[in-house]
């Protein structure tokens, strides 16, 4: 379709008056309503969210519990077909979804399109995985006269808590994986982005996921904490801050009853190592993309650029020159490359960090931001040492350090010592250097001579270790298994009446 046609669809999709209400068995629940303001101007009401209270949260878990058995008994192929149908619905509703991603989450059209693509990919990838993993079970080798199979099945009620920075893709990635594996789901979107999430839930319901198998609970961290503590939650998938993941883990550990797994995808202080042999134009391009695209609001984004001294002035100059050209503003304007940050709190945190660094670091770039809306201009600061950056800064702020030949091992030790391990970039034309960097760092996603964002579902399984997450990697071949329990079924096929088809009944 033409760009003009797409923009028309987006305009039409934006017009509707929207409310995201908690859905228990598909029925909108009462609650206090709060307007959702567009981050681009902090004034336009994009829609309203109706907040769930604790009683609603409890009811959603109970309802999911009742929905679990029927959904688990639905053959994996039928579950997969429902996810695939939902992916078609998302594509058919792209105007509305892109419009919401722009208005509610402040995404540029490029970012919104990439996110819609990723959401569709997650649905189709996990559907395909469900077919192969959860169908007949995996035949295991063994003696004749016996049939051994490893069967995967749902755990029960899975709680999915998702972030505002990918309100469609990560929301659906978690939910579709849990559903594909045969779990009932209680989904809690980020409090900033419930409108696009409820669209995703509606698409899944319309595509054949029973309302009882997918419950939707709005609200902030208090509601999230209530859900995590509920005794009938059998597993939790969480993407967000390391600190929240830790709190979730503590709550789960303190609960009575079965041990509950947590699949967490958290933050990073992602570094890129650039040596003197790197191609300057390529580095500049990849740094600007990795640090400033999506206004730096990706957990994969580049935070710490480490450049070899010999080329540092030249590289920093090129990067600053390119970053200065970025157009900041309302993401609904097609020429804009950097949109707003998500809310007032995010802006305050970034502004405070920037003010601190203006007093303590060398300032290479400090772009002004529009006064209205939650904007932060791109910044480039040079730090004296790697250890000066101790926390994840979630926005368009790039930190740079220089290293001299011989100092690389100590620099890598310092990066490793942060405990984070999400993404890593290496730019070099020396294979031994590339191998040295990658093998020293326990980082989930390593990118060599390219940018560090936009992992592709099924191609670049995504996720980190240490403070950055538990694994398994989203969009990878092992993700679904963590949402499931394993059951080994051994049938004596030599016994009278022994029949391997018993296994299908047992499933
Ligand atoms: C996140 O920002 O929470 O590779 C994770 C990427 C995305 C990052 C998602 N998959 O840029």
TrEMBL record:
Signal peptide: none annotated. Oxidizes proline to glutamate for use as a carbon and nitrogen source. The active site is at 265, 299. In the C-terminal section; belongs to the aldehyde dehydrogenase family. In the N-terminal section; belongs to the proline dehydrogenase family. Residues 36-488 form the Aldehyde dehydrogenase domain. This is Bifunctional protein PutA.
